[in-house]
Specification:
With 318 residues, the protein is an alpha/beta fold. The protein contains 12 helices and 12 strands. The structure holds glyoxylic acid (2 copies).
Length: 318
């Protein structure tokens, strides 16, 4: 029996590619650059299974031109790039990669918290410039992290993993979430409304999926409610923050700084952000460890295997 035809939109780590080639017929060997829309449409048309990235727009038009497609495994925990309703109408199973990237993303969130508070990226750039003349009691003073208030918006897997790490820093965790979770009671974490959290947090960290409800969740009014000494940290999706409003708030010193791993129009960075020294910018690295990226690929393959074996896909969404 012919093996199912799999289209992978971008090159994945080699061990994942090897596992994919061993089990499926690849529609083509993927490149390490984003496919054009034309090539996406052309290759989806031939595929019975596909692995897509968060940078691929999987919309109604694409799905309507993919008559053989049975499963779309999105290589990400977030799936705002996929039109789930259109997939459901065409009986295409959509899956994501939860759990395996929780720790990597929580770790990177902490890298950002520490970096923006203690001016790590700025200090590194300064050292590279060769201008350092030696230790000074008043040089590059940052903000305290230990003992402060960590505000978590969205207490899903990643939000909880970020909150758990706060214990080591003696921080007070406050959160906004749709529902209570059993972990919460153990940690002494306290629920708040978003308004309360904005006023209390020294670090406000965003861990919600991007949906119509969370689009621009943090805009001018929310930024104005934050402490002038507070930092905004975003490792979720760029459009959860109104970037134009953020640039204004930072310029006017309404908040102390921001650390961003995600952007509204990736790979574009909102004009003005790069000029601000109180901003740390990373190129969407949340899940970017080799171990995690391999595990994400293996989960995509396991979901595809399940569908072709007639079993329910373990990580089905929607
Ligand atoms: C990355 O941003 C993901 O959703 O996995
Ligand atoms: C994703 O894994 C989340 O629930 O935050």
């Amino acid at each position: 029996m012919a093996r199912p035809r799999l289209y992978i939109t971008r090159r994945l780590p080699e061990s994942v590619m090897a596992a994919a080639r061993a089990r499926y017929d690849l529609v083509r060997e993927p490149d390490d650059v984003p496919p054009s829309r034309e090539s996406l449409v052309d290759h989806f048309r031939q595929a019975e299974a596909a692995i897509s990235l968060l940078t691929d727009v999987i919309d109604d038009t694409l799905l309507s031109a993919s008559p053989r497609l049975k499963i779309l495994a999105n290589y990400a925990v977030g799936y705002n790039n996929v039109d789930l309703a259109a997939a459901a109408r065409r009986n295409v199973v959509v899956t994501n990669t939860p759990d395996v990237l929780t720790d990597a993303t929580a770790d990177l969130t902490w890298a950002l918290i520490l970096s923006v508070a203690r001016r790590v990226a700025e200090g590194d750039a300064y050292m590279r410039s060769g201008s350092w003349t030696g230790w000074s009691p008043t040089q590059m003073l940052g903000s305290e992290v230990s003992g402060t208030v960590l505000g978590i918006v969205g207490l899903g897997r990643i939000g909880r993993a970020v909150a758990r790490r706060a214990t080591g820093f003696g921080m007070h965790v406050r959160y906004v979430a749709h529902s209570r979770h059993p972990d919460v009671d153990q940690g002494g974490w306290e629920p708040r409304t978003l308004q309360q959290l904005l006023r209390e947090a020294d670090f406000l960290s965003l861990h919600v999926p991007l949906t119509p409800e969370t689009h621009h969740l943090i805009g001018a009014a929310e930024l104005a409610s934050m402490k002038s000494t507070a930092f905004l940290v975003n490792t979720s999706r760029g459009a959860v923050v109104d970037e134009a409003a953020l640039v204004v708030a930072l310029r006017e010193r309404r908040i102390a700084g921001a650390a961003l791993d995600v952007f509204e129009q990736e790979p574009l960075v909102h004009p003005g952000l790069r000029d601000l020294r109180q901003v740390v910018l990373l190129p969407h690295l949340g899940s970017a460890t080799l171990n995690t990226r391999v595990r994400m690929g293996m989960i995509c393959l396991e979901n595809i295997d399940a569908v072709f074996a007639g079993r329910p896909a373990p990580n089905r969404v929607g």
